[in-house]
Amino acid sequence: MEILEEKEEEEQREEEPKGLKISDNLQDVDTTVSAKQVCVPSDVPDFDWSSIDTSQLPSSYKTNSLKEKKLLHIADHFLRQYTHLCPDRKLLFLHPVNECGVEKFVSTTVRPTLLPYTELYHWDGCASFVSDYLTMEPLKSPITPPSSLYSPTTILKYQRGNCFDFSVLLCSMLIGAGYDAYCVHGYATREMCTLDKTLELCPLLREPQEGMKKSNKYRVKPPPDLQSKFELQQEAKKKAEIEAAQENKEREEEKVMEVEKCKRDPLYGLRVHAWVLVLSGKRDVPETFFINPFTGSSHSTMDEHFLGIESVWNHRNYWVNMQDCRNGCKGHCQKCKSPLLFQREKEEEDMSFDMPPSWVAPVQITPREFETRCSQGRKVILYKKAKLEKWAPYLNGNGLVKRLTVYADLDCAEVVEVKEWFKNREDMLEMREVNKQTQLTTEYFSPGHLLGLKAHTYTSLEPETERTMEFYSEARVDGLQKRVKNAEEMTEYFVGREDSLHVRHIEFRKRGKKIHLAGTRTEINSQPIAQIKECFHRNLEKPADEDVAERIFLITENMIHLTYHLKDKYITASKKDFYKETESDRKGNEIFVTPGMWSSEKDKKQLHLYKLLQELTKEEKWLKQQVQQSEAEVLNILKICENEESAVKLSVSIYNTERNEKRREQYEAVVARAHFEQDLDYLAPFLIQIGHREKMTKAQALRVRDECLTDLKHRLIDKANIIQARFEQLQKKNQWFQKNRNRLSAEEEDDFLTRYSESASHIHTLALRLNREKQTASQKYLALEEKLRKDPRLAKHLGHS
């Protein structure tokens, strides 16, 4: 046991102003405080700790060893001296009783443990697990430490405890993970002691802080800023006025909240709390910090919510704070690294004493408990204008694990925004944001979606409403990165294409009047196209006046505009305008080119222009097909999203044997089939034809070998033919749908759209299987031939053949 700082001179202590020491006046105040003034969460159910079963606990829980008894004797001796030297201080939290009613020194209750989960190897993972897994219980008296301290194993079993139970468990996990961690007994504000976060901003709503960038001596000078300074000043002025108005509004709301809810706490500075201290050094921790075990969040040691420290301890030692706590915990934690030994005890008895090992059994957490996390699978935290809900994985059928609801007022009556996080969904949906004011929904998908979808923003799943789709461009053949579509236009953005295309913009015409036939669905037919515009990046392999920068196909006007990249030292770019001939007057009509076109001498030849026009006409026809495919893909994605949301499927890892019963049954079936095949004789159908297997001639052996190889050859060919037939059948179905799509009934089209993505995946899979069968057929044939040559029944006849 050690002391952080020697006792100050008695004269200086007498001159100290009133701080956090418990004087006679403060003790009088304590006795007058009624129980109604103690803030206790209303949602914490009562639990009778006296009813827990301790009969199955190890003997170390029920008795003390000789070394533990000696430690308790030393602790009592130290406590008497401390009380004599500091009569105005509260009694130390040294040796409370455990769940069996046996006194145990607090340092021996800490059991360093490293659990076999990657997340629990880092401090934030440990803190998050403890805050989620346990249910908070307030102290019986908010101004005195508890009389008991149960083992971490019991706390984990019943998933509940007070701040001291939280801290001991978290400290045990952090020390086991290699951190220099300590339990702290001190004082904190009412909000922290009672887990009241209604005045704090939710961590998920805080803007991430940008890290400090290191200055580089040899950096390239940035280009000059050509923006108007006056305009920037005006914009900054407007922005400052808006921010000031917003701050004033929030300040007024906070004042109202403080008047109504946060009146002066009569127990300010007296509320007992326990938390965890992590010192810098080990595990590359750059700076010392606190962890509030109730929330799992880190705090600076200068945080004003921590008002004072009485003592700190770990599994090896115990320290008492003798410093002035008038300024909170500022500067107290740095002296834990160089403690002063309790020299009077050592000088008198002239002996050294090592801390006995922990009496707590090994801490264990099953995979199911680690996954479930929250008590009863759900936890709700109220923040300032926000509510955070957490669920265990697989508890909700739609994979929902976290929901953040943001409100416009402090009373949490008007919902502004809802954010939801998902896990283990087969459609790879990861997050969904819903703006309740604009009804704008944004869904985010992790890599692996069937169509490479990354994000989808929409107000409705109706086909012709405005929406934005983002894709994983590296997972698509066309390099599509983003698609923005509404009823009038569609814009597609591309990345990494060989033709340098990066933007394609399509404008649609209004639909004409259609004759509705019975059972048809004409409202989702391809929209008539008015214009297609494409933009290209510069291709350095071509001259600038031959490299197209922009081309516009005016479908309704039968015109094509070409704009080329700008050449060096030129002010204007080369352009070409083509007027296409119509079907009625194709004969005798010439190609018209705008007189304002700039081009080289060779481009003036009619033949060159005619060939260019033919190429552009083919491109226009191909682009129309691409636009129709894009429209069909949008409808397909909408249909898939609608079907997936109506029947959500959750994926289960093959390593999760508790939930994945189907996988386990498949594995057992494969193992049983493998054993069965081992018992089969692959030569039995051929040996039975020759009758006498023991007396086999060379001719019979050669006949058995040839028949066996021929049978394998036929089976390989049949298998390849079946795959080829299925591949061609799916291709024909896809081509038939593209041709007859406008004549399908509503039910037929819905049925095909639901199966379109599956058929596309099957076509790709069958193509891969067919290619693999062709490549491995010869290898299988040679492998069987070698196996027959080494078979003991045929080896003596085929060894030299």
From TrEMBL:
Which GO CC annotations does the UniProt entry carry? axoneme; motile cilium
Mind listing the GO biological process terms from this record?
flagellated sperm motility
Q: Does the keyword Heme apply?
A: no
Q: Where is the Dynein regulatory complex subunit 7 C-terminal domain?
A: 694-798
Stretches for region Disordered: 1-26
Residue ranges under compositional bias (Acidic residues)? 1-14
Against InterPro entries, the record matches this protein to: DRC7/lobo (IPR033551), DRC7_C (IPR056292), MORN_DRC7 (IPR056291), Papain-like_cys_pep_sf (IPR038765)
Localization, per the record, is: Cell projection, Cilium, Flagellum; Cytoplasm, Cytoskeleton, Cilium axoneme
Q: Which UniProt keywords apply?
A: Cell projection, Cilium, Coiled coil, Cytoplasm, Cytoskeleton, Flagellum
Per UniProt, residues of the Dynein regulatory complex subunit 7 MORN domain are 376-653
The principal localisation class reads: other
Annotated coiled-coil segments of the chain: 230-262, 713-787
Keyword RNA-binding appears in the UniProt entry: no
Query: What family classification does the UniProt entry report for this protein?
Result: Belongs to the DRC7 family.
The name this protein carries in UniProt is: Dynein regulatory complex subunit 7
Q: Which organism is it from?
A: Strix occidentalis caurina (northern spotted owl)
Q: What is the lineage of its organism?
A: Eukaryota, Metazoa, Chordata, Craniata, Vertebrata
